[in-house]
Structure formats: C-alpha cells, structure tokens
Design brief:
The structure holds two protein chains of two kinds. The longest helix of chain A has 24 residues. Chain A starts with a strand and ends with a helix. In chain A, strands 1, 4, 6, 7, 8, 11, 12, 13, 20, 21 and 22 form an eleven-stranded mixed beta sheet that branches. A four-stranded mixed beta sheet of chain A has the order 2-3-10-9, with no helix packed on it. Chain A is of the alpha+beta class. Chain A is built from 19 helices and 23 strands. Chain B has three domains: 74 residues, SH3 type barrels; 207 residues, 3-Layer(aba) Sandwich (Rossmann fold); 113 residues, Rossmann fold (3-Layer(aba) Sandwich). Chain B is built from ten helices and 25 strands. In chain B, strands 11-8-12-14-15-16-19-20 form an eight-stranded mixed beta sheet, sandwiched between helices. Chain B has a five-stranded antiparallel beta sheet with strand order 6-5-3-2-7, with no helix packed on it. A four-stranded parallel beta sheet of chain B has the order 22-23-24-25, with helices on both faces. Classes of the chains: A alpha+beta, B alpha/beta. Chains A and B meet through strand 2, strand 5, strand 6, strand 7 and strand 22 of A and strand 5, strand 6, strand 9 and helix 2 of B.
Chain lengths: 615, 446
C-alpha cells in the first residue's frame, strides 16, 4: 500500500443534563414534533466580498429548511430566536478531563467561536465551537497518538429527510455537547487507525459523561498520500469500516494521479464546455431515461471531450469510475440525476448505432451525454463537469466526501476554507480557573491500558477484558462487579455482558432497559437462587418477551429455582443407588441431564463427597 | 442593538510584553511559551470582558484562544497585518423606482473580517448591493448614512434630524424611503415620523434585524428586501415598521409606526400591531405586497412638520409609587407627562393628588394603560372619574409609547393646554380608533 497519512476527528456526544448553550434536555425524540418553522440561510459576506466556498455551494442550492421542535424540549436558543446561555460547565469539565488524560494543555481562556455551516443543520447558520486544549499525546499500549486539539462544540440538528427543495431537520440533537478530538496525521496501518479511533472514543466514555448507542460517536478521517490532497471523509458510520475507507481513498488518490499523468502523456489541455444538441440523434432511443426526457420536451446535449477515451471509465474505487466523480458533482450542483459517458456506452438502452450517430455528429470519440428539461440546466451541468475534468489535470482536488456503506466515498461539498470562523459575540470568554481544573481532574477517565490491566487482575482473560472494553457496557460491568463481585465472579458478569447481551441487547420494542434484566439475573445468582446455567435460559426467555416479565417470574414459571442442598443430596443418593456407582463423572452426568439448570455442579460434587465420606 | 466592540483592554503587563517584542494588534506571530511549546497565530485585541492578563490569539486553525501572559516566553513577529480593502468590481446600479435608504445604526449591515474575526458595520452602497444583490431588481437605491448610533440613544432631537433628512429625500424625488434602525426604539421613531409627516409623497418604512447580518440566519435580508419593495410599491404613504411576521422566514408584516410595539427581546417576530392589524404583508419569495388595511393615507404632497419637545416624560405607575416622582417632574419644568396607569388608566391616591398638582401647574397629563391591549376608560371606576375631574387626558387606545411621542410632537407646536387636549384625542395618523375588533388581541378571538 502507498504511504498515507491519516488524521482522525472523533466526536463523542456527552450525556449531560442539558445542552451546551441552553438548558434543554439532551435526549432524542421519536414522537411527532409539536411545531415546525421554515427558514433560509444566506452566506455571510467577509470583508473582501469573499464567501466561503462550502457556504456558497449550499446557498446556490436554494434550499428551504424545515425545523421540527417540541414545546417541552426545544427553546428559543435552538430556534435561533434567543442568544445562547452560558456554556454548560458539566460539559466543559468533561472536555477538560479528557484533555488532561491525553496530556493536552488547556488554554487559559476558552473562547466560543462561530463556524459557518449553512447546510441548514444549524438554525443559526454556524456551529458554536471552542478549543479547550492543544498539543497532547495519547498512548494506548505501544501506540503513540499525537493529539492536536480538543474542542467542545454543539451537535447539529438531526436530518430527517428532504422533500424537493425542502430539507427537514429535527431540533432535538441541536446543541447536545460534543467533545471533538483531532489527532495529527499518522502513518499507522488502516487497522491500527481503527483501533486508535476506538480507544479515543472509549476513553471519553470512561468519563461516565458520554452517551452511548448508535450515532453517539462519529468519526471523520483526513486522508492524504504524497502528491495527493487532503481529503476529508465525513461520517464513517462504523468503526469497522475505517480500514476500508482508508484503503479505498488511498486507491482513489493514486488512480487520480495516474489519470493526471495520462492526461499529460496524451498532451491534453484543460477543456472548455463545448456543447451540442444531440436530441435528434437519439430521437428513437430505447433508453427509458432519455426517452422520457425527450417526450416531455426536454433535450439531450453532448459535451465534446476529445481524447478522454478510457479515462472516463477508469476505475478509481470498486465500481466507482472517474465518470462517477463527474456524476456526483452534477447531482450535487444541479437537479439532474446524473450523466452518461462514452466509455460506458453502448449500454442502458443506448445502442451502438446511436453512439456512432452521436460520435459522427460531434466529430470526437469521447463525450458525455446530459439530458434534462431546461437547456440552462444542461449548460450549468456541463460547466460543473468540465470544471471537475480540469481539476484532474492537477491531480486530487481538496474535497469533503461522504462515506458510502461499502467503504467507498462520494463527493459531499468543497472543503471549507479556513475563513469561516469568528467569535460568538453573545458569550464572554471563560477563564479556566484552578477550581475548574480541579473539578475536571476528578472526572479524569481511566486509561484504556489500566482498565484492561484491572480486569485481568480480577481474573478475566485478556481477550475477555478487551471485549469488555470494546463493548458499550464496561461501566455497567464495573458497577455490577462492585455490587455482586463477591458472589458472582467478574468473569461471569463480564461474559454475560459481552456474550449474552449480544443476542438480547439489540432487540427492538423493549419495555425496559435490557440491562435491568441482566442485573436481576445476576442478583438471583449471587443470592444463590439460580444456577449459572439458568441465567442464560432465563435471560433468553426474558429477551423473547422484550423485558415485559421480571426475570424472577420467568424463573418461577419455568421452575428454574436452584434446588436446595438437601434435595440435591437426595437426588445424588437416588442416582447412586439407581446407577450402582458413585463415580463422580457418571453421577454428574446423570444428575445434570435430569436437573439441568436447577442444580449447581458444585452442589452435586459436595453432596457426593458427603455421601461417600458418610458411607 | 449590539455592535461587538473590541477594545484594546489588555493589562500593562501584556502591553509591555507585546512592546518588548515589537508586536502590535493583528501582528502575525510565533509565540514561544516558557515550557518550550511553540504556537503561531494572530494577536487580537480583547473584548472588554474577562481577564486582561490573557492574550487572545487567532490560532492557525481559525479558533480564538486565550494564553496567559505569564506563560509566554518570546514573541517573534512574522508579519504585520494590513487591514483589507475592497478591490472587487463595482456592483452595477439598481433598476426601477428610486428608493432612499437612511441608515441610523443597528446590526442590519454588519460584516465579518474573517482574518481577525471582528464584526463591524459597513455603510457603503456598493457593499449593500453586494450583500443584497436582489435589491437591484426592485429599485434603484440611494444610501444616506445619517447616524451610527445605538437605538437606545435615539431621542426627540434626533427624530427631527431624521425627519429633515426624509423630507429632503422626498423633495429630491425619492419614491420610497427606508430607514435602517436599531429595533429597540424603532417604533418610537416610526411613530414620530407618523406625526411629523402630515402627508407624504412616499412611504417611510422602518426596518432592522433581530439577528445581526453577519449570521447566515439573519432576518436582515428579508426585512430589507420587503422594506425596499414596500417603499416603492405601496399605495399608502405612512410611516411603518416592516419586520418578520413569524419565527419562520418568508413573510414580513408591515405595521403602522403608531401601532407597532416591540413585544419580545429577541424573536424575529418581535413587532406586533397593538389594538390594530398590520397595514400590509410582503411575501418575500414571491416578491408580492399585499395591502390589508381598508383605508390609509395615499401618496400625496409632502407636508412636513418636524420638531419634538424633549421635556415630556413617560412614567409607568406601579403599586407603592410615591407622588414625589410626579412632583419632581413638575419642579423640573417638564412640559407634559404621560402616565401609564393600571387597567382602565388608574393610579393610587397619592399619585392622583400629585397628578392634580401637575395639571394645576399647567402640565398636560395623558393617561394610557399598562395592560398594553385595550383602551383607557375614566368613567367606570371612581378613581378614573376622579382623574377625569382633575383634567387628566385619557389616551384612548393609543400605545403608551405613541402617546408619549404624540404629546412631545404636539407640545413642540402649542403649549395651550386646551389645544393640547384637543389634539391628543383627535386621530391624526390612525393612532386612535373608536372600534377595537375582537381579533386585535394577542390571543385573537377566543
């Protein structure tokens, strides 16, 4: 693999009582919203008449943003109808605690900034964000991770969907505090980068102030190769996708450099949009897409791109060709659904005769077909396509890309310029005082290495210890070990969480938190009321009923209560007389077969020993 | 209104440190901390709050951060910053009817200097067109920078200067007037112009923003756009306030200045017509003006009478208020008093007696109501009857603020108490009405 550099940005949602700049709760809601409002956003002008490229790009889409809110959990701050309230100190303490853990130096005064984002995800048109600390170094086992900055920022509104020009956002998530950890560029292999992403997020969770569950940790990657460009990949949905995303992005940049070299080798020069109407050449096409456009009075136009044969169809990532990059841009900038390029034709209902007709009309070998209702839109799309092709002469364009589910990426928007930050003038700077640092120190999360060592010291295998650390439940495991650890082994408690919860934990439609059932089962076991085997059986039934029945009631219903010692002694003695042997293996097999789940193997051994010694 | 002010409010220690290494505001520097850390950034002035020993730096990544001067070892100046100058192409002028924009202050035209992060107001026509290019298609705009003040610093003397400027613009042929104003006292100024312009050649449209225009979510664009549109298209030639009709974008309500009141400290739809309906609405996305009022003053010859008496007081009555407050005004030679009474316009016995002394001293006393909605009635309860007998003037369904502006306008014309009384109760600019429609209440009809 080509040498690459990857920087991570990890965002962890905090589970604070209220949001970062208002006192609304930090819970997401799935009931119907109580009200909606509609807004538009305009890029704000800088003193040089410059507008951030990302902001301008969003504005050109002419969007209307619909915000959904709740009377009892949305306030005027989220609606951008009231200035922010003072920063949430609980969140600030957590961010400082994480900074200390990663040996990052806190700033002496924290200044909240406005970062302009006008995709509608913030009602204000900016995200409030503050740098809390800088220049840290995190170590996980033998890995060294340079920590550039740690920031505290507000989460964006939740995108619920879109409807034509309207984009719908829900305000429940807007303002939830996020800790953002940005690492320096690292040259570790992709799998190691994935591990580091996990360790960083897990360390924040160890403060006890982080949310868990789907979407509570989000990771962005900054990926570059030598001669390439810094490309930001936003919203990698799963940790496990990180290695693939890195690999595919490196491939894409390598292939874009190959295209650049090939363009130069062919002696090509940047293009200008040269469009020709080819509607009549395709008047009787079988292509559904083109036919329906023509039927509705639309046009098909071809961009002349002499010399690009083989380049348009060149594969950059699995199933993603250079033509896909062009189509991404067209879809982003215009209302068109995409394009067809000569390297993929004949296909999609376009016959080779039609391709030949277009070729001879254009007088060039390679071209791109655009179809749509308005000629002006096609002209705009052609400009977009040609601009992107011309970027290929320079190599890799700087972009913000979005991760697809298969690890490939697609164009999201131009990379924002650095010129998009200015101070939040509605808030005073916060002096980082000794008292604040002391409060933070008490929240300092346990380092991952120590956490693993601690579990191994309790008798867990290293593998199990790692599994606990990797699960979202390490705090529950810690809590239950501290309560029941004397009577139920830490290994048992841990393995229930990493194994049993795997099949019951993710079920939908629970009436209660599944962890409540886990705890009840462990308590029954610790109190000597059920056997180890019965825990699994009872929990399986508990899961089937989505937590609607108490574990103890299930145990009663299924007759799973542990038999008292005198009963075990009687059963063992019956078995001995029945089998005519007192071999432990034989007796154990017989008793466990008949009374599985209700007797404890240790009780059987003890009863047998007593029987043998008394006879 | 809020202009984010950045003052050089560092401690002597910081200033000495900067001086030692030749750094000034906006210098691009490399700071070597005493512990060996190196940080690049731009030195910023600090806001007038916080710890003056903490140096504010714009970090390379755009964030502002604070570093205590005690941690700083050496400063290396990399570059002296020169303020940006606009060198772009000059925007083309607008088309269509002539609209004159009169700027008085407020955040409606503020801009961001991203290099330093400072927000500052801008006042050139080129910048206005550049920020709001859509204006070009509805009017050809002229911009007059009259004042640059906080709206809370507005006063009756400045109303006259404002009226003079508007009058001159009308004489010069403006077909629409838009006044850019801080929102806090916008309705007072708009009411003032309602009385000063007995008749006008063009509408006088006041507008501002509740979210400053450096933000992408600012209400300023729609407010300015709707105001310019209404100023050149409206058939009415009255002084009005034009601001968002709801928390959503898309619809701007136009209120008569004499009826408008700022009813919320921060919402976009803070302005509401009290005891009346808006005179018109503008659908921003369609660019349409919809007139809602059945009658209004038509565009006509401009008859302007400026001048306001600045010795008029607007006093809110409260339980336990002493008559001394009123006595003080009489002793200090105030020319008139508006008292915002309770309910139908009541005050306590001691305040009643003090008002009696004021009337005897020759001061016109107008009573309005602090319920905001509804009208004054001095006939229902005994205290009202007593006040009426003393010669207090009932303010009808006029807003307290409008009553205050009207009284100060009248007193600049006449000090004859009977004439003042006659003028106060005579409708001049739709500020008084005999009918209150049930819908004209914050809860509507219910």
């Amino acid at each position: 693999m080509v040498k690459h550099r990857v920087g991570l940005e990890i965002h962890v949602q905090l589970d604070t009582e209220s949001k970062l700049f208002c006192r609304c709760p930090t819970a997401l809601r799935n009931d119907d919203p109580h009200f909606t409002i509609k807004r538009r956003l305009r890029p704000s002008m800088s003193e040089l008449g410059q507008v951030d490229p990302a902001a301008l790009w969003e504005f050109r889409k002419n969007r209307v943003y619909v915000y959904e809110g709740y009377n009892d959990s949305t306030c005027l701050v989220e609606l951008d109808e009231e200035p922010p309230h003072d920063i949430n100190e609980e969140a600030l303490s957590a961010a400082l605690a994480v900074s200390m853990r990663f040996n990052a130096k806190p700033f002496d005064e924290i200044i909240v900034m406005r970062k302009v984002v006008i995709d509608g995800s913030n009602t204000s048109g900016f995200q409030r964000t503050a740098l809390v600390a800088r220049n840290g170094l995190a170590t996980f086992m033998d890995l060294k991770v340079p920590i550039w900055t740690i920031a505290l920022e507000e989460d964006a509104a939740r995108r619920m969907g879109e409807n034509g020009r309207e984009v719908v956002y829900r305000l429940d998530r807007l303002g939830i505090p996020l800790i953002e950890i940005s690492t320096g560029p690292m040259e570790y292999p992709p799998n190691t980068i994935m591990d580091i992403a996990f360790y960083l997020g897990q360390t924040v969770r160890n403060t006890g102030k982080a949310k868990r569950g789907l979407g509570s940790i989000r990771q962005d990657l900054n990926i570059s190769i030598e001669g390439g460009a810094k490309v930001e990949v936003k919203g990698v949905p799963e940790l496990s996708l990180i290695p693939k995303v890195i690999q595919y992005e490196v491939d894409r940049q390598v292939n874009l450099l190959r295209i650049r070299d090939e363009l130069n080798r062919r002696g090509l020069k940047p293009y200008s949009p040269d469009l020709m109407d080819v509607t009549s050449e395709l008047a009787s096409t079988k292509s559904n897409l083109i036919r329906s456009v023509i039927k509705q009075g639309g046009k098909v136009m071809a961009i002349k791109l002499p010399g690009l044969s083989g380049i348009l169809g060149f594969e950059l990532q699995p199933k993603r060709r250079f033509g896909s990059e062009l189509a991404d841009r067209v879809r982003s900038w215009t209302e068109l659904g995409g394009l067809l390029h000569s390297d993929e034709l004949p296909n999609y209902g376009v016959t080779s005769e039609e391709v030949e007709r277009v070729r001879s009309r254009l007088g060039v070998d390679s071209f791109i077909l655009l179809s749509g209702a308005e000629e002006s839109e096609l002209v705009e799309a052609a400009t977009v396509v040609v601009d992107r092709i011309n970027e290929a002469f320079k190599g890799v364009p700087e972009e913000t890309r979005a991760a697809n589910d298969d690890g490939t990426t697609k164009f999201l928007r131009p990379r924002p310029g650095s010129a998009r930050m200015y101070p939040e003038t509605d808030l005073r700077p916060v002096r980082v005082t000794k008292a604040l640092l002391e409060r933070a120190a008490s929240l300092m999360p346990e380092p991952i290495d120590e956490q693993i060592r601690r579990y191994v010291g309790m008798g867990m295998s290293r593998e199990l210890a790692m599994q606990v650390v990797r699960s979202p439940y390490s705090r529950d495991v810690d809590r239950l070990i501290s309560i029941y650890g004397g009577k139920a082994s830490p290994t048992l408690i841990a393995s229930l969480f990493v194994n049993t919860l795997k099949y019951i934990g993710r079920e939908e439609g629970w009436s209660v938190n599944p962890i409540m059932g886990m705890e009840e089962a462990i308590k029954l076991y610790a109190d000597g009321k059920i056997t180890r085997e019965a825990i699994g059986e009872a929990l399986e039934e508990y899961a089937k009923r989505r937590g609607s029945t108490k574990v103890e009631d299930i145990v009663r219903e299924k007759g799973l209560f542990k038999l008292p010692l005198e009963d075990v002694e009687r059963i063992v003695s019956d078995a001995v007389s029945k089998l005519g042997t007192s071999s432990e293996a034989a007796i154990m097999q017989e008793v466990m077969r008949r009374y599985r789940g209700r007797v404890d193997a240790r009780d059987v051994s003890a009863a047998l020993r007593r029987l043998n010694s008394s006879s | 209104m809020r202009v984010p002010a950045f003052f050089v409010s560092y401690s002597n220690k910081v200033n000495a440190k900067l001086k030692e290494f030749g750094a000034v505001m906006f210098s691009k520097v490399r700071i070597r901390m005493k512990d060996g850390e190196v940080m690049d950034g731009i030195i910023l002035p600090r806001p007038d709050v916080g710890d003056p020993d903490v140096v504010i730096i714009k970090h390379e990544n755009g964030y502002n951060v604070g570093i205590h001067v005690d941690g700083i070892g050496e400063i290396e100046v990399l570059q002296i910053y020169s303020p940006p100058a606009w060198t772009g192409p000059k925007p083309s002028p607008g088309n269509g009817p002539r609209a004159t924009l009169i700027a008085t202050g407020g955040t409606i035209m503020s801009k961001v200097d991203y290099a330093t992060g400072a927000v500052y107001p801008s006042f050139s026509l080129d910048e206005l067109y550049e920020m709001y290019p859509e204006l070009r298609s509805i009017a050809s705009v002229e911009l007059i920078n009259l004042f640059s003040i906080f709206s809370e610093d507005m006063n009756p003397r400045l109303w006259t200067e404002m009226g003079d400027a508007i009058n001159k613009a009308m004489q010069d042929g403006a077909e629409g007037i838009v006044v850019l104003h801080g929102t806090d006292t916008m309705h007072y100024s708009a009411a003032a112009m309602s009385f000063a312009f007995r008749s006008a050649a063009a509408p006088i449209v006041f507008t501002g923003s509740q979210r400053s225009s450096d933000r992408p979510s600012s209400d300023s664009f729609e407010n300015i756009y709707a105001s310019v549109l209404a100023s050149v298209k409206a058939p009415f030639a009255e002084s009005v306030v034009s601001m968002h009709a709801s928390s959503s974008d898309g619809l701007v309500a136009i209120h008569r200045g004499v009826r408008a009141r700022k009813m919320h400290s921060s919402r976009r739809d803070a302005f509401i017509s009290i005891n009346a309906k808006p005179i018109a609405f503008v659908d921003v996305s369609k660019g349409e003006l919809r007139v809602a009022a059945a009658s209004f003053k038509q565009r006509g010859d401009t008859i302007y009478e400026g001048g306001f008496d600045d010795r008029v007081a607007l006093i809110k009555y409260y339980p336990g208020m002493s008559g001394e407050v009123i006595d003080y005004l009489v002793d200090r030679d105030y020319h008139g008093i508006v008292v915002e009474g309770t309910g139908f316009g009541h005050v306590s016995e001691p305040v009643r007696d003090a008002l009696g002394r004021a009337v005897e001293a020759g001061l016109p006393v107008v009573v309005s109501t602090q319920t905001i909605y509804g009208r004054v009635n001095l006939n229902v309860y005994r205290r009202g009857v007593e006040l009426g007998k003393l010669g207090v003037i009932p303010g009808g369904d006029m807003n307290s603020e409008t009553a205050y502006v009207k009284l100060s306008w009248i007193l600049a014309r006449t000090r004859d108490v009977e004439e003042v009384r006659r003028l106060v109760v005579t409708p001049m600019a739709f500020e008084l009405s005999e009918r209150t429609e049930p819908i004209n209440y914050c809860l509507g009809v219910s």
